[in-house]
Amino acid sequence: MSAKPKMECKPPPLSPEQLKNVKFPMHNTHFKKMIKNLRTACCLSLLAPLMFYIFHNTPRKVKYRNFYTNYDPLDAFDRMKSGGYLSSCPAKEDNKEKEKEKDKKKKK
């Protein structure tokens, strides 16, 4: 059997100075993107409820506060009653008209 010569395809080892200059463009790209996405997700998850509270809930609280400081329930009841929205309390105008109609029928 004849011995085959070994074929070496390895590049020669680099010196420490050459190793400092070598850049690996694909090194840790997945990890870096993952960390970037994680930071973005954490910031948005903290920022979104804060913005919702500031721009939605706070103005709504102010509107409710203003409404109930000036709210008069008796006046609102009178408006609903005069508008005919309450079936248990018919409007005063309707009662007067019905009484007039009854009086006219009685006279005839």
UniProtKB/TrEMBL annotation:
<feature type="compositionally biased region" description="Basic and acidic residues">
    <location>
        <begin position="91"/>
        <end position="102"/>
    </location>
</feature>
<keyword id="KW-0812">Transmembrane</keyword>
<comment type="similarity">
    <text>Belongs to the cytochrome c oxidase subunit 6c family.</text>
</comment>
<dbReference type="GO" id="GO:0005743">
    <property type="term" value="C:mitochondrial inner membrane"/>
</dbReference>
<protein>
    <submittedName>
        <fullName>Uncharacterized protein LOC111596317</fullName>
    </submittedName>
</protein>
<dbReference type="InterPro" id="IPR034884">
    <property type="entry name" value="Cytochrome_c_oxidase_VIc/VIIs"/>
</dbReference>
<comment type="pathway">
    <text>Energy metabolism; oxidative phosphorylation.</text>
</comment>
<dbReference type="Pfam" id="PF02937">
    <property type="entry name" value="COX6C"/>
</dbReference>
<keyword id="KW-0496">Mitochondrion</keyword>
<feature type="region of interest" description="Disordered">
    <location>
        <begin position="84"/>
        <end position="108"/>
    </location>
</feature>
<dbReference type="InterPro" id="IPR051389">
    <property type="entry name" value="Cytochrome_c_oxidase_VIc"/>
</dbReference>
<dbReference type="InterPro" id="IPR037169">
    <property type="entry name" value="Cytochrome_c_oxidase_VIc_sf"/>
</dbReference>
<keyword id="KW-0999">Mitochondrion inner membrane</keyword>
<keyword id="KW-0472">Membrane</keyword>
<keyword id="KW-1133">Transmembrane helix</keyword>
